[in-house]
């Protein structure tokens, strides 16, 4: 069990605050998320990373428009954010919540996404993208983030 999972398990009965979740994600996964975001941007264009801390899915804009799990408010926010974020400096993160609106945030990463990708490509820290299916729809890219 990784440290992020342990920290989450310890707080299982507590309401995890949005900023705390972002802080934990960025503390433990910043470089992996940045590297994954860059690879996805190169392959699929603008989009967002949907993550729960264990599994990260890349959602290009074409998938965001049709994803059955994304409500209209989140979809509108993603449309705005996906047009304005700078993929060379930022990652567009989406954190799903079961009991409240999803979090959508631009996150500036250090190292930047391209540098993170070049540092991790071909290592266990950046496994190859895998095609996965969601809700019986057409496959899209998803990857476990180490």
Overall description:
It is a single chain. The chain is of the alpha+beta class. The chain has one domain. The chain is built from five helices and six strands; from the N terminus they run ααββααββαββ. The protein has helices at 3-10, 18-44, 61-64, 72-84, 113-120; strands spanning 47-51, 55-60, 90-95, 103-108, 130-132, 140-144. The chain has a six-stranded mixed β-sheet, sandwiched between helices. The longest helix is centred in the first third of the chain and has 27 residues, at 18-44. The protein is globular.
Domain module tally: 1
Strand content: 15-25%
User: What is the average per-residue confidence, as pLDDT, rounded to a whole number?
Assistant: 76
C-alpha-based Rg, rounded: 14 Å
H/E element sequence: HHEEHHEEHEE
The largest sheet, given as strand count, sense and whether it forms a barrel, is: 6 strands, mixed
Helix segment tally: 5
Number of DSSP strands?
6
Helix content: 40-55%
Pick out the low-confidence regions: 136-146
State the strand order across the main sheet.
4-3-1-2-6-5
Distance, first to last CA: 12 Å
Coarse morphology: globular
The secondary structure category is alpha+beta
